[in-house]
């Protein structure tokens, strides 16, 4: 056999910057999400359609904080859309693991942290798209009313809160194998949204239900996201939002670290 | 039989006193091995011999329980980060919703330096499929895509874990001719297989492993000779092991109760001796398969 040639000289080889994170990968990952019809329907079309039906209910023009009920519903629906999108994105991590793709990536310089950052970025971009979609529908519907700054603040807060659900998606994706994760996350998130006061204000629930609702994961983020509009934010809602985010991130990190031990 | 592989330059692969245990199971039990740059080496052994565990250790996917694993003189993960090592796995590792070109472009973007995507697809013979979704490719086409992905970083060491499993004869031949053409550039290739024929045909050197140990290491003809012996079984109480071993051409003698099992290259001599010089009865001679060769070689390793 011939001797080592120039290109195979280990001394000439470099390590990629940023642990392998780059624009090509982000572009392909985003394209994958947008090409997936199921993802687009459940995360972009569904929340927008819900916005259309919920947003037109009676009493939409009643005053809430610095805006009206239409604005309250809009902020809530944007949160729901973003949460669903981010959870769908998160659950794909486990799916890729089961397909052996994570193992393939382990044979490249891509650092595990860079992989997580990339997935988080894609989840945020998709969450932002969901928020924009719901807001566009809201604007076209012409019922929501609030100052533009409030509008932007609500959207930005919803984007931050998507992290909680991206982590939840990763966690559930690992616990429930294969493509079944979304079958649980879809109805599960809808249930949590009802319970957390995202679809129906908590004030309309019976006392007993409300006491339970305060402890569920959607309650905190819902209050946080609507705070710029309502100018109300109970301290326990903030504790709820931070607490569940920490819990889901910890759960996802725990499952993933257990998992990579036997990639 | 073991080839001495001390080399002035850093070996492509160096395993020294490597063991790997999973709980109570010993997957690898004390392997020492060095591969010279440019060698094409087969890891030959039955299922569960520890081939995949060794490959995983060379890829830094799993850490040895004890011992040293080095690739091109560095820690496996460091070699991976520099694109010096790549691997073709038997299954999985592909996303069905990406096209062939997207998959290669995705992989290519992760390395500091790579060969052009189109060149690599061409070399793997799938340039014509570039825009096809991976999920629509046949098993053989997917395997060639995995090969293309492995070539992207122009690795100095290429690891193949049972690369032709599930391929037809034609696909297998095409795959290996691509590998052979490619290896002339000085790349070291290490492949795991449980087919003696495949190892013999495509490797410069065969490392026979069984139960986590190297039981033989040599060229194809040398290894084939080991598998070509026969097994002689006979009823013989109080067998004189030393006398049988001294017959010449006897690899291994095993006494179980009143029966004796002898692995030998020259079965005629052993049979003649047993029937004429001992009270042996019920003599049985069988050709040794590769599996049995593994077993006898491992048995030898333990009694030595």
UniProtKB/TrEMBL annotation, chain A:
Membrane topology: Multi-pass membrane protein
InterPro entries tied to this protein: ABC2_TM (IPR013525), ABC_2_transport (IPR000412), Nod_factor_ABC_transporter (IPR051784)
Native organism taxonomy: Bacteria, Bacillati, Actinomycetota, Actinomycetes, Propionibacteriales
Pfam families, A to Z: ABC2_membrane (PF01061)
TM annotation in the entry: 40-60, 72-95, 116-138, 150-176, 188-206, 233-254
Keyword Membrane part of the UniProt annotation: yes
GO biological process, one term: response to antibiotic
Domain ABC-2 type transporter transmembrane: from-to ranges: 25-227
Name of the protein in its database record: ABC transporter permease
Gene Ontology CC: ATP-binding cassette (ABC) transporter complex
Localization: Membrane
Predominant location: membrane
Protein keywords: Antibiotic resistance, Membrane, Transmembrane, Transmembrane helix
GO molecular function: ABC-type transporter activity
From TrEMBL, chain B:
Subcellular locations according to the entry: Cell membrane
Pfam assignment, any one: ABC_tran
GO cellular component labels: plasma membrane
Keyword Transport applies: yes
Principal location: membrane
Membrane topology: Peripheral membrane protein
UniProt GO MF annotations: ATP binding; ATP hydrolysis activity
Matches recorded under Gene3D superfamilies: P-loop containing nucleotide triphosphate hydrolases
GO biological process: response to antibiotic
Keywords for the protein's UniProt record, in alphabetical order: Antibiotic resistance, ATP-binding, Nucleotide-binding, Transport
Entry-linked InterPro entries: AAA+_ATPase, ABC_transporter-like_ATP-bd, ABC_transporter-like_CS, ABC_transporter_ATP-binding, P-loop_NTPase
SUPFAM superfamilies, per the entry: P-loop containing nucleoside triphosphate hydrolases
UniProt xrefs under SMART domains: AAA
Coiled-coil regions, chain positions: none
Name assigned to this protein: Methionine ABC transporter ATP-binding protein
